[in-house]
Amino acid sequence: MQNDLFPAARPESMGIPSKQILKFLKKAEANGIMLHSVLMMRRDHVVAEGYYAPFRKDELHRMYSASKTFVSAAIGLLADEGRISLDDHVCDYFRDKLPDHPHPYILDMRIRDLLMMATPYTSTTYNRNDKDWAWTFFNTEPSHPAGTIFNYDTSGTYVLDVLAERVTGKPFLEYLKDKVLRDLGFSEDAWCIKAPEGNSWGGSGVMCTTRDLARLALLFMHNGKLGGKQYLSKEYVQTATAKQIDNSPTGHRDYVHGNGYGYQIWMFKDGAYAFCGMGMQLAICIPKEDFLFICTGDTQGSAQVYAGIVELLWSEIVEELHPNSLPEEKEAAEKLEKTLRNLRVVNPLIGKCSSPLAEKITGRCYALDPNPMEINKISVEFHNVEGQLILDTKEGKKCLSFGMEDYIEGHFPQTNYFGHSIGTPGGERYKCMAIARWTQENKLVIRCYIIDNYLGNMTVTLGFKGEEIGICMTKTAEWFLDEYEGFAGGHMIKK
Asked: Is the pLDDT of residue 100 over 70?
């Protein structure tokens, strides 16, 4: 069934002007939106699909909180099979994790409360240092009755996927593959990062392709039925994709809050709904237009960009959809095809590729004053359109290669970050890509993106003043790159 799900069609034949998709792509690039892939479908046909180099079509990509909708599907399947009820008390599945005297709010929690992000907690209960996230969930003091207030709580999703794994005896994603996803052509090597106690991190850890995410979205858009087979009940899908709780406690509305929340699914405007993950992992379903939009990316640290892509989608695509086919626009269609074939990850830095200062500071070493990053010495070396940032730390020398005109791919110089399980170092370096620009004649900015099972970015700003240097390091990443935040100053070491 794999090939049947993604037949291709010219945009105009599906009522979409090619020129509008081009506008969308160009404006996204102009706005510095860090996309990794984009896929648009209408009436079950692919009208646009592209991957921003170095990302590839067949590459597994971290879906972050879009993973939550996979958990919702697993819970829905178990309910359909009669193995659970959404009105079951969650505690009944976790007697071994309960405290001696559980709070009534905890005892009263039902599966549907967790599905609609209405746990009795003020925030996610676990952190990176906890060894048993399920135990932490049930042993945290609650603040209000479950089912009353929306509060985004990834620990609730985690408990749901552990519940599914306890009932089925297998990882929840494998259960989904066996029951549904394998039939839909889902990647066999797709997997999920694990929590410290060994269960899947269903709230954030699914690794799959862009088309894999589209497969799940198509299943929901077709009320659980694809290829003539009802995989997930229509009743569950329609409930999951409808407002179950008000998700704007403040009463305000933005691109996502204020339209409501279903079962691990966000309600959008115009009857649309979405699977949303940190950094721009998105599946936006617009049933009334029979339109599906999928993208992946890394916009961590830029919430306004997240909102911007949604507004851009509506202004350039959704509002331009036609109910009937349109006349062929051969020139625009050919230009679109070429653009989609040659996409490359955008460079968000504004500045120049060279500076007269480069020759004076290349290879020169600066001794730094005591600083939060614990860097003793720093130097930069330039080789034509490439460069290296060299750090002397307590752990030894660390080198990061970067390009001045384009990204250079490599590996980040750390081996102590998490691997397949949270809390367990992988012992390998994360894949990364880095680029730099001179934003002033005396200021070099280096941006490094982690492009591995974990996504994140680090920015190093170097300001030069005579023989002195000022440094600012910032990072946006979940539970790694912490060593690279803070300011430092220093002086050039005499030859």
From this structure: yes
